[in-house]
């Protein structure tokens, strides 16, 4: 728990009066800070209860009641009881198990703090059973911790150790490091009660390791204050003072006033054991000041009252010593604290003996002796219980070690036997492997030759595909127009048509020649690509110039279909690409757009900046294409040949060639199309940098 102190000096000293005023002011602030959290919960509760649709049995309301109940601990026991009772009643009416668990837990704590452990234990155990029913391990661990403290306060250290060990197992299961710290610290406290400082410090080492992982300075300070009490009992005042000072600094900084009251009381104990009575009184007064301002913890207050009685006895202020010792004894009887009754009875015996009040002294001596003998017997039993528990765990550990060693010995025998069998198998395997190696070499040679044959077959297959495609193009796309041209010329030379009639065929002949030229150019570029003969040489290229040149080149064909081509490129965009390859891409996309756009249509060329790329689009108002066609047109194996709106014949090479050229220039190409509404081809090329770039 916690502690704060008060400075008591000669009231005639002006400086002392000033310090007392400052302390009173600080204590007032302390109480205000201590109650701020409780006031915040009370305010939230008041707001909830004032809403028009408020239902007292709503789980949100019950959860607020539970939190408020726990906030009253050490401050207002009656409020703790009344709020916890309301939460439990509401939870029972709606069968809200979590609310019942917390309500029972809070009521158990109320009776526990009052020293009425016979009433608190059934409440804790009922809450524990409910937590197990709904598998609420967090609540289980919390209740087990309280049960362990309850048994410890009764002096039943063996049972307390048992519950702490159960709690540690559960806390490990849910990886609750904070509860692991608390439970290990509880065990350290059990050993400290038995003056077994070695084992106590061993558990404190575990606690400090866990605390370092938590990184919570308040939790660490709580451990330091308990360790200070341990070092004080061990008469190691240097370590005791070091730990208590660190904990006090943390509690003061974070305004943890309940623990601060305890820490002040422990620091007073340290000075008392060194018979530095004035300093002890100073820190006891600080702790007492906090208790006067509504901090309620009778267990710590008993220690404080007896400590102050001892201090006043040392300062030869016997009347004050009697006053505080009697207060401590009354509190001890109230909460049935056997150790408190022993300590306060001893102090009262000494004071009465000094004052010559032998009957009173004798009465307190008898009480002291009787209770001490009883407690000594209990402690001896509990020491034996702790020792038996420890020996039991050590015995289990030893049995486990011996069992593991026996298992290892058995495993070693198996291993030796296996090694012998393995050696025999190895000899047999060696003979078999030798012949297998020879066979493997032959198989490897055969496989390599088979792979070479398969690879050659694939190459021949690709060559055949290329040849087939070339012959198809030459046979269908070139032979037709050339044959038509040849036929017209033969008719003219044979005199079957006149010069005037020949002239009328010239526009058609011009179109056929242009188609032949366009097809031959694509065919040449594609053929070189197939033979891996094209080397991409990027440089700074004017995209506008390429577009303008191709618009001019195809303007006659577009004009013949009354198609308008609109150039919407931004001002002078520069790309980093191979001039000839991108020229082929733009020419093919424009040609396709003209081919598949009906008369009086519209073609738009645009470019947009996308990060470090230019995205060029060629959009037409043509016939569009079906989704199936969109998926297949860019495939390398595609040989799709379609007819334009005026039955223009294509080779099927254009888009395949566009894809290869764009990819060689580190770009992408794709299409978006809606049947009967139009098509847009997109492709990207890198932007030219402002500085000179080396060709790749």
UniProtKB/TrEMBL annotation:
TPR repeats lie at residues 101-134. GO terms for molecular function: kinase activity. It is an enzyme of class 2 (transferase). Keywords: Coiled coil, Kinase, Membrane, TPR repeat, Transferase, Transmembrane, Transmembrane helix, Two-component regulatory system. Residues 390-459 form a coiled coil. The chain crosses the membrane at residues 414-432. InterPro entries: HATPase_C_sf, HATPase_dom, His_kinase_dom, HisK_dim/P_sf, Sensor_HK_Regulatory, Sig_transdc_His_kin-like_C, TPR-like_helical_dom_sf, TPR_rpt. This is histidine kinase. It comes from Flagellimonas profundi.
